[in-house]
Amino acid sequence: MDNYQIIHFHHPLKLKNLSFLEISKKAKHIDKEASVDAFNLQYQDNIQPRLRTLLKMADTQRNPLVFFSISFLEQLESTDPDMLLELQENVNKEKISLIGSCAYHSFSYLCSHELFKEEAMLHKKLLKKFFQPSPEIFINTACLFDDEIANIVQQLGYNSIVATANTWHLAGKHSGQLYRANTTDDFNILLANGDDKEGFQISLINGYGSAYASNQIDDQIKNDVKINQLFISTSGKEQPVYAVSMPLTSPSWQYKIPDYTNNPLQKALLQQIADLFKNKGNIKDPEDLKVLMLLCQPDHLMSINQFSKDNGYNKFISSMNILTDLSLKYNN
C-alpha cells in the first residue's frame, strides 16, 4: 500500500486594526510588519527545520507532496532566499510535487464561490513566479469539498482533486478507492484519510501555519507510484461517483467549520465580503482582492469567534471598517 502525505506550508497574514477615523484616509489594510515579525520569530526553530526535512526527502527520492501558500513563498523569499532557491531546484527537477489550492489558504468558498474561483486561479498563476511545473492536483483549505468545488476546480484545468472521505457518502465502500466527481465531465477524486488496506492512504500534515492536527512529517514514506499517476493504472475501469451536495471538511482539521462561520459576527462579515465582491465586480486591484481573501483566512475568522468575545468584537469592527473603506474607494 502506498502512503501519501500532503504537507502544508502557510504564512497567515495579519490585517491592521482599522478605526472608523481611518476610513477614506488611504490607510494600508495589511499589517506587513507584524506579519514579517511573526514569520521570523518562528523561522529558525520551527519552519527552517521542517523545510530541511522536505529537502532531505527530495534528496532521497521520496517525492514529497507539498502545498505552499503564496504568502508563505513571498515571505520565505524575503527571509531566506537560499532556502527558496533549493526548493525551486527540487520542484523544477520534479523531486517535490506541488499541490494546488487557495493562494492564501482561506475559506473563500464559504463566503463566495466566485471569490474562491479567483483565489484558486491566483494560486496557480502566482506559483509560476516561483516554479516551472504547475500543480495537477488540487486540495481546498481544510480539504473542504462538495460537488460545486469539483466543478470549479475542473474548469481551472486541474486533473484531479483531493476530497474528504465521509463514511455516509461512501455508503460502505472503502475510502481508499479512486472516484469520479459528480460533474458533467469526468473528473478524478482522491480521498484523504483513506482506510483501504489494498489501496492507498493520504494523510494531511501541517508543515507550518495550517490547522491540521498532525504536524508529524514522516520522512520515511516513499511513493513508488507518483500520486498523479494513480489513475493511469486504472484507466479503462469505470470509477464510482462520489457525490457530495453539502461541504465536508477533513476530520484531521483541528476545528469544525461552524467555529469559523456560525456566530452572528462571522456571518455578518462573510455576507458583507460576498456582497462587496458581487456588487463591485470591477474590483481589479490585486491588493484589494487579496484583502478580501485575507479576511476569509481561518486565523482571522477564528479571531472573531465567540469564545474570545471582547477581542472578537474588536476584530469584527475593524474588519467591517476595512470593507467600508474598500466600498467607498469604488464608489468614488
From TrEMBL:
* All copies of domain Glycoside hydrolase family 57 N-terminal, residue ranges: 8-194
- Report the protein name in the record: Glycoside hydrolase family 57 N-terminal domain-containing protein
The text of the family note is: Belongs to the glycosyl hydrolase 57 family.
Extract the Gene3D superfamilies matched here: 3.20.110.20
Establish whether keyword Acyltransferase is in the entry. Answer: no
Does the keyword field hold Glycoprotein? no
**Record's InterPro entries?**
Glyco_hydro/deAcase_b/a-brl, Glyco_hydro_57_N
